[in-house]
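ARCHIVE CARD
Drawer: 12
Card no.: 0347
Subject: one protein chain, sequence and derived structure
Cross-reference: see card 0346
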Amino acid sequence: MSIKENILNDNKGCVLNNFKLINREEIIDFIKSHNGLLELLEKVYPLLKSYFPDYSYSLLYAPDPEIVSIEDLMLFINGDIKDYEFNRNKLYDLEKEIDNLKVSDSNVKRLLLLDV
């Protein structure tokens, strides 16, 4: 079953079901065109739950409006604004852990951007 079929059929085992997909079709197409991105999300999700267990998470496909060749997948951790500084420090630690993750294609790490 393809990634698109998994997501469109609301397959319970797909890691993307743990995120609000802001622009669903674009996200699916982006993941399909970048092997290893889904694997990265599968490894990042447990880390998210460890660092930010009480928040929800959203994904957004974000092409650069000025440079056609630049596109990213934004992962938003929907935190509380009053805890912004504390969460930014935790985000920094999370990003370091993600940098150290072993994935089949480490180049996909540059495609995933995080923000609280």
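Annotation on reverse: Confidence is low (pLDDT under 50) at residues 1-5. The radius of gyration is 14 Å.
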